[in-house]
Protein: Chorismate synthase
Amino acid sequence: MSHNSFGHLFRVTTFGESHGPAIGCVVDGCPPLLPLTEADIQQDLDRRRPGQSRFTTQRQEPDQVRIVSGVFAEGDGPQLTTGTSIGLMIDNVDQRSKDYSDIKDKYRPGHADFTYDVKYGIRDYRGGGRSSARETAMRVAAGAIARKVVPGMIVRGALVQMGPHKIDRNNWDWNEVGNNPFFCPDAEAAALFERYLDGIRKSGSSIGAVLEIVAEGVPAGLGAPIYGKLDAEIASALMSINAVKGVEIGEGFAAAELSGEENADEMRAGNDGRPLFLSNHAGGILGGISTGQPIVARFAVKPTSSILATRATVTRTGGEAEMFTKGRHDPCVGIRAVPVGEAMLACVLADHYLRHRAQVGVIEPRWPFEG
Structure:
């Protein structure tokens, strides 16, 4: 299987299966002398970890990460990156492979079972094997390192829609995100989500969601105008997350309803002599290059395909069958996708930061009217 890596200068390669002994990743290109401990990574993994509420899968994985290479501490000094490959490992400890024995010869509707089998001629039916969202734990681990690469960068995410129910943006409060199990920035919407998802969960069904990721403190000038567009690579990274079916930057699809006057982000001279944008419809990216404004990306996650309802399917031998999915599954997989989306955006920005530094030799943008 190819294509287990993403990124260029900051490059992440993941490995492992849902029901294998462990999952892991190798991070190449991380600069030396950055402080890095397992605790730095664990705090992000704990936000993605399953089994933390009744609204996520009850698989009990502690997701304890081990750094197995790429760091060094001299004497009593801090543990620092060495500039070599950083190896990370997480043991799988709560697999229940027997839950999947009934489907080994059947294709689950909505899953990658059929496409995986038709491509490789073999599949690990225990939780989807390599195609399982279990792999995203390693993306979150890599994202924790990526956050350290870009000085002053803050990447945060939130769930802004569940099924047909959207947040009230007038109520947006980043401090509220950690106060509910949905990563929701609107306390009133979070209460609604709780009642709504309880009904979905008890019925054995599932529902989709929309997530918004915002990166602040990103310098202007990252990206390239043709094949290295920053927004294109962000879209590719977010679309690579399991169950994601749509990505938009800034206004996204809503821009189709705006006039040119409404959509253009007008500028004035700021007090520091640099341009001051009066709006951010572009989501912090113009012509594939960052503007220095917050980068805003949203992605839509489909309903979890593993539900208790009986559905029609076929077998590997071409027969028709009916099935329902056993096991422990998320009624809304979008909830735990928030830290995954943050990690993917952080990794793309770290990669482009290093590429920009390598190409132009500086990070501070060259403001044209500064002389």
Observations:
- The mean pLDDT is 91.
- The radius of gyration is 22 Å.
